[in-house]
Design brief:
InterPro entries: DUF1416. With 101 residues, the protein is an all-beta fold. The protein contains no helices and seven strands. The protein has a single domain, classed as Sandwich (Immunoglobulin-like), CATH 2.60.40.1120. The protein has a four-stranded antiparallel sheet, with no helix packed on it. Strands 4-1-7 form a three-stranded mixed sheet, with no helix packed on it. It is globular, with a radius of gyration of 13 Å.
Length: 101
């Protein structure tokens, strides 16, 4: 079992989205239904593993990262998928990952 924390869309108290770079999103299946329990990995611009979380029951996930180019990859029993995101500064940056498509 992975020790990655389960995620949700609400930011924790005390997080200032104007000062933090937050990558958040949802894991969905080909039909658009949420995929909970997927392992979501954050990879840097060279493809190196940086972090991993477990998507919530509603498919939500969240990472705190630096500005730059990132790949967000989801691994689940329903399939795998990935998306890229390139936040250039602080704020909440959303991405959807479709798996099994």
């Amino acid at each position: 079992m992975c020790g990655a924390p389960v995620q949700g869309q609400n930011l924790p108290a005390g997080v200032d989205a104007e000062k933090e770079t937050v990558i958040t999103g949802k894991v969905v299946g080909a039909s658009g239904d949420a995929i909970g329990g997927a392992y979501v990995r954050l990879l840097d611009s060279t493809g190196e593993f940086t972090a991993e979380v477990v998507a919530s029951g509603s498919g939500d996930f969240r990472f705190f990262a630096a500005p730059g180019d990132w790949t967000v990859r989801a691994l689940s029993a329903s399939g795998n998928g990935q998306s890229t995101v390139s936040p250039q500064g602080a704020g909440v940056h959303e991405v959807t990952i479709t798996v099994g498509a």
